Amino acid sequence: MTQPSTISQAINVLAKTYHKILKVNLTNDTYETVKVRSDEMAQVNEIKCFSRWIMNFADMGNVYEGDANIYRTRLHLDALRKHFNENDRFRLRYRRKTDGVFRWVFLEILPDENFTRDNQSVWLYVQDIHDSYVHEMEVQRELEHFCKYDTLTGLNNYYSYQTLCRNFAAGDNKSSVGVIFADLNGLKLVNDTRGHAAGNDFLRSFTRKLVDNFQKDTIYRISGDEFLIVIQNSSRETVGFMSDNFAAYLNQEEVPQASIGFAWSEHPMHIEDVARDAETHMYESKETFYEKHPEYKRGIAELNYKREIDAILQSLSNSYAIMSTIDLIRNSYRVLKSIAGTGHYPTAEKYSTMLEEMIPMVDPDYQELVEDFFSIEHLSREFMKNQTLVCEYKNLRGRWHQATFKIIETLDGKPSKALFILESVDRNRADKLEQHRDLLIEHQIIEGLSKNYSMICRIEISTHKLLLYKNLSLLESITTAMKVLDYGAVVKWFVQKYVVPEDKARVQTFLEFDNVKEKLMEKDECTILFRTTPEFHNTKDVSYSQFYFYRLKTDPDKIVLATKNVTKAMG
């Protein structure tokens, strides 16, 4: 097949994807048309200057008004020339008129193979991306909505509250801040006795009350049963009146849906400080509620326990990703605290179920280790020897973690409960673990090859250096030669000394460094079979030898080279 026909086929394939293809010379401001839309042909016939054609296209109203300025600025001839003096690709997304409707298109300019600074020859492609890009933007808007708003109530969520707090703390002009803290009464009781569907209805009912009494954009759902109303630039009296008025509104019912507390500060540094004071006042209201409705006090001990645990774990949050307890006898599992950033960590009640859900999140090379080490059988057995057990492993994201198990309870002299702590490994430790892992895998590969191969070397791609691991059959002189540690020199020496004349050219060509590297880019391994002189394997006659190249997956910069006598296998 001739080169022109190949190029023609390529252009035909591209033309099915792109509705505009031009070959442009930025140096002399000219262009050749490969493909344009039929409604642009008149402009092609009339204007032969590329820069005029680009600007005229916008002047005729073909570019959306909101995109016209960036279109003209970035596609200005001087701007393109300067761009390609420093870059090898140009991209622009804008809206152009197509059959009377503006649609999103993607314009890309790439250098021609003959491109030079003195002859800036490039290819310009334009592709319609409207449908996929509009869908992408809709998905993005939906994701942004879910990031900011609570899906059940439609109120601002905890992330939005954190954003508000960060922006306020970063601002110079601190306004007054009032916070009304509302904590639902009896949501847990509703969930436990009537089900979570009834609990959701309870939450929606309270949300309607909030929206009826406050501006919706000031209301935040910060946890399952906790809500904040953040009011800025209002007096203490105003915030207090709003809080008292809402409390009175709730108290009209026999059992008010929430306990209320408020706080106000004239110039706070942080909104969280005001919210904390409001929460304290809310608990005063909560105690009054429990005095009137003692049946709702169920769970208060668990709440106090949670607050104590939170206080302890807060001090550990910088170090630990997750803390939980494991009941080794009942096979139960309870998360005490999961710190942000751990991803979707399993929270199953059964420990064995949690472990099953966790294993797919672990790097495949470590799944067997984790499955065995984390098993109740292993923990129970090893706890008889040690109070603390530690396991380091790598997850699917390539991050190293350290899992620590500590005995916290015993029954009849045997471990019954353990504390499970998961923490990220610092960078220095992770680097050492990676090096150890790479060396271990490399050692395993070398050990496996040693059973069948008489000589094994390691080649570093970046430096072309060669290191001899094993040399059983070669003469002592080859070891001396390899101390040069230069792959090219060793290959030249080896071919001249040990390859029979009929195979020298073929072997020399195959062993060229760039050829081996190219083959290993396609596959992880490659081989060559050739004949060697009797001296190579200390034989009486010419031998058949095989060179085997393998690129280490753990370190792509390293190649393992092994050789063996295959004369017997050749018959």
What's the helix and strand layout?
Elements: H1 3-17, E1 20-25, E2 30-35, H2 41-46, H3 50-59, H4 65-74, H5 77-86, E3 90-98, E4 101-111, E5 121-128, H6 130-148, H7 158-170, E6 177-184, H8 187-194, H9 196-213, E7 219-221, E8 226-232, H10 236-250, E9 258-265, H11 271-292, H12 300-316, E10 322-327, E11 332-338, H13 351-358, H14 364-373, H15 376-383, E12 388-394, E13 400-411, E14 414-424, H16 427-450, E15 455-460, E16 465-471, H17 476-482, H18 487-498, H19 501-510, H20 513-522, E17 525-532, H21 534-537, E18 543-551, E19 558-565
Antiparallel strand pairs: 1-2, 1-5, 3-4, 4-5, 6-8, 6-9, 7-8, 10-11, 10-14, 12-13, 13-14, 15-16, 15-19, 17-18, 18-19
Given as residue ranges, the uncertain stretches (5+ residues, pLDDT < 50) are 299-303, 339-344, 472-484
Give the strand content: 25-35%
In which order are the strands of the major sheet placed? 2-1-5-4-3
The total number of structural domains is 4
Give the total of beta strands.
19
The 3D shape can be described as flat
Helical amount:
40-55%
**Top CATH class of the largest domain:** Alpha Beta
CA gyration radius, whole angstroms: 36 Å
Distance between the termini: 42 Å
CATH topology of the largest domain: Alpha-Beta Plaits
Q: What is the number of helical segments per DSSP (H or I, 4+ residues)? A: 21
Corresponding CATH superfamily of the largest domain: Reverse transcriptase/Diguanylate cyclase domain
Overall CATH architecture of the largest domain: 2-Layer Sandwich
Sheet with most strands? 5 strands, antiparallel
Backbone structural class: alpha+beta
